[in-house]
Amino acid sequence: MTDTADTRPKTRRAGAGVHVERIFTTPGVHPYDEVTWESRDVVQQNWKTGETIFEQRGVEFPETWSLNASTIVTTKYFRGALGTPARETSLKQLIDRVVLTYVKAGKDNGYFASDDDAEIFEHELTWSLLHQVFSFNSPVWFNVGTKSPQQVSACFILSVEDSMDSILNWYKEEGFIFKGGSGAGLNLSRIRSSKELLSSGGTASGPVSFMRGADASAGTIKSGGATRRAAKMVVLDVDHPDIEEFIETKAREEDKIRALRDAGFDMDLGGRDITSVQYQNANNSVRVSDEFMRAVEEGTSFGLRARGTGEVIEHVDARGLFDKINKAAWECADPGIQYDDTINAWHTNPETGRITASNPCSEYMSLDNSSCNLASLNLLKFLRDDDTFDVAAFQKVVELVITAMDISICFADFPTESIGVTTRDYRQLGIGYANLGALLMATGHGYDSEGGRSLAAAITSLLTGAAYKRSAELAAVVGPYAGYARNAEPHQRVMRKHQAANDQVRTLDAMDSEIHRYATKAWADVVELGAKNGFRNAQASVLAPTGTIGFMMDCDTTGIEPDFSLVKFKKLVGGGSMQIVNQTIPRALKKLGYQGEQIEAIVEHIADKGHVIDAPGLKPEHYEVFDCAMGQRAIAPMGHVRMMAATQPFLSGAISKTVNLPESATVEEIAEVHLEGWKLGLKALAVYRDNCKVGQPLSDGGSTAKDKAEAAEKVVEKVVEYRPVRRRLPKRRTSQTTSFAVGGAEGYLTAGTYDDGQLGEIFLRLGKQGSTLGGMMEAFALSISVALQYGVPLETYVEKFTNMRFEPAGMTDDPDVRMAQSIMDYVFRRLALDHLDFETRSFMGIHTSAERARQLETGSYAEATDDAAASEPDGSELGTPTDAVVTDEATSQASPVAAEASTAAGADVESGSGAASARTVSSEVHSSAELLEKFQGKAADAPMCMTCGTKMRPAGSCYVCEGCGSTSGCS
C-alpha cells in the first residue's frame, strides 16, 4: 500500500539548507533574558474529595503566564519523578528539552543552510513558545527529549481486514495507542456483514459484534490508568449491509442507560454501573457518498453491497435510512457523518489508497496505518495594539513551525511498524490555530457574519498556503516525501484546487484584504515551487480541538470555536478565584467606537447578567459580535456550519467541531444540518443536542460510591415523582417598590423580577417592625415568593385573593385602584396591573385609570393603536431607573473591592478604561462551565473531569477541563 523507501537524507543537495529569518528575537540576546521570571507553588486538589492530587513548589514561569497555564504545564508536561532532582522545575527546562532536540535533528538531517540559521531557528522557536505564540501537541511535550520513545503524534488511523488475525491485531494496536494516551480511528467496512456467509457455510458475525470487543478493551485500558479516557473513532460505509444496526447501536444503548438509571443504577460517566452498557468508548461515524446523498434528495432507493463481491444484496429507501441517522444523532449525538467523496476529492495521495477513516475527533483524514503530529498558532498574538493583524509575522511563524514539525518525523517513534513506515513515507503534518473566536470578537466581527467568515477564510488560506510553500522549499533541500512520485499529479491538482478556492474569497475590509493578498501570493508560490521541487509533506493543515495546549497558550477560545461564554472563571496566584469578564470584550467595544464610560457600563452589565442583551448604550446591531457558543445569545447551528464551510476549502484535513443544538431541536433540524454540510463541502460533521445523553450532565467523577448511590436515588426521585423545579432569582435583580395606603393603613409593596421581567418575589411591610400584623404580612409574602419561583402562575393568586374582604379596607392613594376591600385585594390588583398582560387582567375586570377613562369615551378598554402593547409587562411600567433597586446590596458593593483584590492577587485584569469587571466567585463554582450554569439557571450538559472533579467545557468535538487540562480524547 505504501512506498517504503527511507526518506532520511543520506547527502545534502548542492546549496541545500533553508535560511531562517528573525521574526521576534534580537541578535545577541537570548529570549529567556527578555522575560521576567517568578517562582510559583502548584498545588492541585480534587475539589469534591479535598484530596491533594498534585503538589510541586517553587516552579519557575514568566510572570505573564496565568496560574492556570503554569498549573497545567507543571502537572502535565514536566518530566521526572516528583521530589527528585530529575524533576523539571522550570519552563526553561521544558522548552529547552524540546527545542534543542529539534535543533539537533535539524542539523543532523541537513535542514539548515548554516549554523547561524540553526541558532536563529532555536531562538525563534524558543521565543514563540515562551510567549505563547504557538504550541506543539501534547505528545511532543510528554516525550521529546526524554528516555521514553519519542512519540510526537496525537492522531492515528488504523486498518482492519476481513480476517480474524487482522481483527485481533486491531485490538492489540488500539490498546498500545490508548496506553500512550493517544487516540485512533478506523473503518470497519471491509468486514463482512451479518447477512453474508463464511467460507465454512455459516453466517458472519458482522462488524458491530466485533465493536463490542474493542469497546471493552478501550474501557479496560481507560480504567487501567491511561493519562486520559481512551479516544477512538469507528467508521462504517453507508452501503454496508449492517449499516442500520450500526446507526442504532448507541441510541439503543442510551435507552438502556435511561432504564437502568431510572431503576437506581449509577449510570454516571465513569460510574460503577456504566460498564454494563456497550459501545460507550468510541465516536461512531457513517461514511456517506454523493450517490447516497443524491438519492436522499430525490427520494429514491439505495443499494447495500456485499463486502466480498460488491454486488447489491439489498435495496433500502435512502431517505428512510437518512432519517434513521438523524434520529439516532438526535437521541444520543451518534453517529456523526463523514462525506466520503468530498474527502477523497481533496486527497493528495489517491494513487496510494483511498482515505477511509479519521482520527477520533475527525480532523485528521489520511491513509490507513498513518499518524499526524499537530501544532496550533495563537491567532490573538498576531493582533497588534492598533488592532491590525501582523500578516508578515503570521506567515513567517507558520513557516518556522512547519519546519520544526517536519524535523520531528526524522527522530519520532511510532506505536506500530506499519504506522511508522507510512508516516515517514508521507510525512503528514497538522498545523492549525486557536483563538479564532477571540480574534473575531476583538476585531468587531460576529462569528456568524459575512465579515467573520471572510476573515477566517483568509487566515486559513494563508495558513495552509504558507505551510505548503515551506514544504516545497524543504523538498528542494531534503527531498520530497517518498510517496510523492506516484502521486505528483493529484497532489499538484489539489494545490490548484486550494488556489482556486482562495480566488473565490470575497474580502470586506482592510484586514482580511491584506491577509488575502498574502495568501494569494503564497498559493502562487506553492503551485510554482511544487511543480519544480515537489512537496515534503502529503498533508499540511487541520483544525484540531486544542484542548490542553489551548490552556497552555492562555487562549480564550479553542480551535475554530466561538467564545464559550462572556464571563470566565479565573484562578488567582496565592489561592482563590474570580469571575472576570473576558478581556477581549473591552477591546472589541473600543474597536466598535464606544468610549470609556460606555465600555465600563456595558462590561458591568455583562458581569451581572452574563450576556449583552439590554446592556446600557450597546447598539442592538452590535450584539452579534458578542454571541457565544452557550448562553442567552447562543450562535445558531447553521452559524457553526457556515463557519466550517468558509474554512474547509483551505485545509488538508478537516475540522474538529461539534454543532451544538438546543434541547428543543427537532430531528428535521438535524437533518437540515447534515444535508447543508454536504452541500457546503464539509468533510465531516457531528451534532450534539443539549441533554441528549444521560451520562454527561449527571457526571460526578470525584464522588464516593455512597455519594453516587445517593445521586442516583435523587435522579430516580426526579423521574418518578416529577417534582417541580425552583427557578431561583439572580443575585442581582430589578425590583419596584410601591408605597400605598388602604383605609388609612400605610404599607410598602416590593416586587422583584427575573431578567425576562417575570415576577419572582414580593415583600410586604405593614405596621411597625415586630408587630403581629407586620410579621404575618412578611411571612405571607415569603410563601407567595417561593410559590412563584416554583412556577405557580400569578393569575392564580389574583383570582384567589382579589375581592377578599376584611379590615383594613376602603379608599387607597393609588389612582389605578381607588377602592380596596382588603390589603390582599389591593396587593394583587396592583401586581396584576404591573405584571399581567392586558387580555388576562381585562378578563378579571382589572384596569388602569387610563383604561377606564378610555372605556367611557370609546366604549372599549383597549387602545385602538399598537399602544396597547405598552400596558404589557415589558418593563416599561416597572418605574423609572430611580425606582429600580438591587436587592442584593452585598453583591453590588463587592464589585470594586473584588476587582481590586483580583488585581492584587495577580488575576491579570487589564488596567485602564473598560477593564474587565472582576468579583469573587461562590465556593460552589469551579470552572467557566459552572459559572455559565449560574447565569443560565440550568445545568451545563458536560461531563465532570475524572482527575479533579471540575465540570469540563467543549473543545472541538471533545471536552477539556479548565482545572487540570485533562481532555475527553483529543490533545
TrEMBL record:
It catalyses: a 2'-deoxyribonucleoside 5'-diphosphate + [thioredoxin]-disulfide + H2O = a ribonucleoside 5'-diphosphate + [thioredoxin]-dithiol. GO terms for biological process: DNA biosynthetic process. Keywords: Cobalamin, Cobalt, Disulfide bond, DNA synthesis, Nucleotide-binding, Oxidoreductase. Its EC number is 1.17.4.1. Residues 730-833 form the TSCPD domain. Its cofactor is adenosylcob(III)alamin. Residues 894-907 have a biased composition (Low complexity). Residues 42-132 form the Ribonucleotide reductase class II vitamin B12-dependent N-terminal domain. Residues 888-912 are annotated as: Disordered. It comes from the Bacteria. Residues 153-688 form the Ribonucleotide reductase large subunit C-terminal domain. Signal peptide: none annotated. It holds the Pfam family TSCPD. GO terms for molecular function: cobalamin binding; cobalt ion binding; nucleotide binding; ribonucleoside-diphosphate reductase activity, thioredoxin disulfide as acceptor. Catalyzes the reduction of ribonucleotides to deoxyribonucleotides. May function to provide a pool of deoxyribonucleotide precursors for DNA repair during oxygen limitation and/or for immediate growth after restoration of oxygen. Belongs to the ribonucleoside diphosphate reductase class-2 family. This is Vitamin B12-dependent ribonucleotide reductase. It comes from Rudaeicoccus suwonensis.
